[in-house]
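tool_call: predict_structure(chain=1)
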Amino acid sequence: MVHLATEDYTNIQPSDIEFKLPQPNYTVHTLVHLQEKYPNYEFSLIMGEDNLNSLHKWKNYEVILQNHDIYVYPRLNSNTTEENTKDTESSSVLNHPKIHRIGAPVIELSSTFIRNSIKNNKNVVPMLPNKVWEYVEHNLFYKK
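tool_result:
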């Protein structure tokens, strides 16, 4: 689906490299593998603010922060302030210099929302590229 969603964007190159790595796989392992395979490139992460809240629980998150920038997309229902800053470890992650919050409009759209909407027979066609919707519909994904 990622390939279908990005095929019209020549500057985006999806990868299935994580599927080829030993399991269980962790983001830190993927990043190390990519850096070894492509030493002349820099790799960054893009995540929603909701994922940033639990970054301090990720395997070797310190290594990720040491070597990679993380760009964070804002979410409406995200508790990145008072609740999480009480925990010292969480607070140091939220305020880390490699964390870059993106000043983008907040659009409450997520893969979970789309999957749940399909399951509940809601119209998600405007939220997906046509080829992705056709693939999902053809394969009856998320209907159960």
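agent: The beta strands are 45-48, 70-73, 99-101. Proceeding to next step.
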